[in-house]
Task: structure prediction
Amino acid sequence: AQSVTQPDIHITVSEGASLELRCNYSYGATPYLFWYVQSPGQGLQLLLKYFSGDTLVQGIKGFEAEFKRSQSSFNLRKPSVHWSDAAEYFCAVVPNTGGFKTIFGAGTRLFVKA
Amino acid sequence: DTGVSQDPRHKITKRGQNVTFRCDPISEHNRLYWYRQTLGQGPEFLTYFQNEAQLEKSRLLSDRFSAERPKGSFSTLEIQRTEQGDSAMYLCASSPGPRGGGETQYFGPGTRLLVL
Result:
């Protein structure tokens, strides 16, 4: 079945430490891939997206993600986490079938400790 | 560019009542989307419009739900005979069009619905 999986419901990292949030998808063809962040009381904000080309994409706020076709993964990374990064992170796909329906993962909540 | 706005931001209603939410997309965005997000879950697609035409509806959109975008600008989402299971955050997004499915969607702050 087509799906987007974020294996980690929540992650806690120390401020200044590195971060990696995992995302796996299950689609026949490589979909369009996105990472969004949602802070309490805020709308979803796009961090970065991948369509094609260079498999390492840079986003806002110092985030980057790497597309690995062989692993059907699109993991989000940040080398040094700031307390303000505490939020809910969603991986999302738009199947490359001509439609516009976005499928979101269940999200990973990031906690940052001092 | 004032962003996507939604009204109201919060709505409390009693079971069985009808509610209507409004979404104003970014000016001149052709596509408009509605999602529903329940606690601890990612947003779930409900429907989307290309201008005034409703082009796709999720099976989540039961007969009690109806969405319109009469002039291709703002949109309304109505829920009739609300049930407690309808309690959720309702998100609206818009995108410029007419590019393909990878174009960026810009989300509004959402309308949080609580059905008592």
Q: What stands out?
A: The CA atoms of residues 70 and 87 of chain B lie 26 Å apart. Chain B has a mean pLDDT of 92. The longest strand of chain B covers residues 88-95.
